[in-house]
Specification:
Layout lengths: L12 H20 L4 E3 L9 H5 L2 H4 L1 E6 L6 E3 L3 H8 L4 H8 L7 E4 L2 E5 L6 E5 L5 H5 L1 H7 L6 E10 L14 E11 L3 H21 L7 E5 L11 E9 L2 E12 L1 H5 L4 E2 L6 E2 L2 E8 H12 E3 L4 E3 L10 E5 L5 H15 L4 E3 L5 H10 L4 E5 L1 H6 L1 E6 L5 E5 L3 H12 L2
Parallel strand pairs: 1-7, 17-18, 17-19
Antiparallel strand pairs: 2-3, 2-4, 5-6, 7-8, 8-14, 9-10, 10-11, 11-14, 12-13, 15-16, 19-20, 20-21
Bound molecules: glycyl-adenosine-5'-phosphate (GAP).
The site of glycyl-adenosine-5'-phosphate (GAP) has 19 residues, from strand 8, strand 11, strand 14 and helix 10.
């Protein structure tokens, strides 16, 4: 309506469901199914002293170069974008007259400032640039209030904000985005660091593969020394082969004792009494980037249809119910009762428009893995047709087995 604002996106009903499912599956894998990880939820705005201590007010910056002709700014490490931009100007002519097209790289801080209070002077604070610091400042509270023992992790999902100068590629680089992160606390020991850094790289790669990303579209890329964040001893990105090139969607970081050291937190081993500053191995994924890549991976054009082959646990609608025809009250009533039965367990869709073929195609496009049709045979023998999205195969099954059959399929599909 107002033209939007660069770097901010809204999700509609389908996108919201997909995003919620993605976060739920992440939480299940990283918290519910693990005995060594607990979850938490920290505030978006924290005492600004947190960002001083963590080094973000000084070092959380991107080096940017500026085009001397049109004054557009680019991240200095994005060679492809820089080269593509050069083609927009008659560079040879410019360089003959004025020399180099680009300015030297300058550092731009990414923290987003906010001002709190109603009277002047207002208090300057920051929207969190990573959700991570909320975990570190609550480290002691978690140790004191739960039974965690090193090695253990604290997981969190939530919004982060960055004053990105060059947002772009849809939801790939935005100014408001969501992260799903886990900080794993270990003994400060090189061998332990190596072990857990490798372990988490492998676990996270497996997770994306188990949810349908083909291994040829995934790779690990180690950061060069000059690109690592200020807090990282080591960093490896999980990258996806996107149409705009290999792109990061999760970072695995060996943060050493950077954060807990800065916040002056220690851990006392309950058995030995030894006190030390734990090291941290972090898995930091972007919800919006992962969503974009799952969508790209799932989008399939077949001869007669477009199918979004999302993993069934991610699909916005798990099952859709149709009465064969809309104008037969007894069919509609039966279909409604099946719909009401399923919706207590699954996100369930309803469609009674047009013909069945068109309804199947519409559900294929939004990735619904199971469609159920109620027809005249249902009224006679209590069976329905279940149709599977990927194969378009149909089977006749009893209504009272429906929920269980879907559950079995979902479980079989889970990691
Ligand atoms: N706590 C560590 C951390 O924040 P990061 O590599 O800066 O590390 C982690 O970010 C993940 O957050 C990235 O892999 C990406 O998926 C997501 N992310 C970072 N900046 C983003 C942005 N501007 N837009 C969308 N997602 C972003």
């Amino acid at each position: 309506m107002y033209g939007g604002i660069t770097g901010f996106w809204d999700y509609g009903p389908m996108g919201t469901l997909l995003k919620q499912n993605l976060k739920n599956v992440w939480w299940k894998t990283m918290v519910q199914l693990r005995d060594d990880v607990v979850g938490m939820d920290s505030a978006i705005i924290m005492n600004p002293a947190v960002w001083e201590a963590s080094g973000h007010t000084q070092a959380f910056a991107d080096p940017l170069v500026e085009c001397k002709v049109c004054h557009k700014r680019f991240r200095a490490d994005k060679e492809e974008e820089i080269n593509a931009h050069k083609k927009e100007h008659n560079i040879n002519e410019f360089e003959k007259l004025h020399g180099e097209l680009w300015t030297d790289p300058k550092q731009f801080n990414l923290l987003t400032e906010v001002y709190l209070g109603v009277t002047e002077p207002k208090q300057k604070a920051y929207l969190r640039g990573e959700i991570t610091q909320g975990v570190f400042v609550n480290f002691q509270n978690v140790v004191d209030s739960t039974r965690v023992k090193i090695p253990f992790g604290i997981a969190q999902v939530g919004k982060a904000f960055r004053n990105e100068i060059t947002p772009g590629n849809f939801t790939f680089r935005t100014r408001e985005f969501e992260q799903m992160e886990m900080e794993y606390f270990i003994k400060p020991d090189e061998a332990e660091g190596e072990k857990w850094f490798s372990y988490w790289k492998e676990e996270r790669m497996k997770w994306y593969q188990s949810l349908g990303i083909k291994s040829e579209n995934l790779r690990l890329r180690d950061h060069r020394d000059d690109e690592r964040a200020h807090y990282a001893r080591k960093a490896t990105d999980i990258e996806y082969q996107a149409p705009f090139g290999w792109s990061e969607f999760e970072g695995i970081h060996h943060r050493g004792d950077w954060d807990l050291g800065r916040h002056k937190r220690t851990y006392r081993d309950p058995q030995t009494g030894e006190t030390y500053t734990p090291w941290v191995i972090e898995t930091s994924g972007g919800v919006d980037r992962a969503m974009l890549f799952f969508l790209l991976e799932a989008y399939t054009k077949e001869e007669k249809r477009i199918v979004l082959k999302l993993h069934p646990l991610l699909a916005p609608t798990t099952v859709a119910v149709f009465p064969l025809v809309a104008n037969k009250p007894e069919l509609a009533e039966k279909a409604r009762s099946v719909y009401n039965l399923l919706k207590t367990d699954y996100q369930t869709g309803w469609d009674d428009r047009g013909n069945i073929g068109k309804r199947y195609l519409a559900q294929d496009e939004t990735g619904t893995p199971f469609c159920i049709t109620i027809d005249f045979t249902t009224l006679e023998d209590g069976t329905v047709t279940i149709r599977f999205r990927d194969t378009a195969k149909q089977e006749r099954i009893p209504v009272d087995k429906l929920s269980e059959i879907i559950r079995v399929h979902l479980k079989e599909d889970f990691i």
